[in-house]
Design brief:
48 residues; mainly alpha; two-stranded antiparallel sheet; 2 helices; elongated
């Protein structure tokens, strides 16, 4: 999942922080949708 983030953005945060932010965003999207939205980005599955 961290490798899916562009390199110039990866340098700004530790991998753990990127992972935590992605999980939080996924949780917020899931809450809004009323279901688990999964780990899909732009139509492609993001490797974890």
């Amino acid at each position: 999942m961290v490798r899916a983030v562009p390199a110039h953005l990866r340098r700004k945060l530790e991998p753990q922080a990127i992972f935590a932010q992605v999980l939080e965003h996924k949780w917020l999207l899931s809450e809004r949708a009323g279901r688990d939205v999964g780990m899909v980005a732009r139509g492609a599955v993001v490797p974890v």
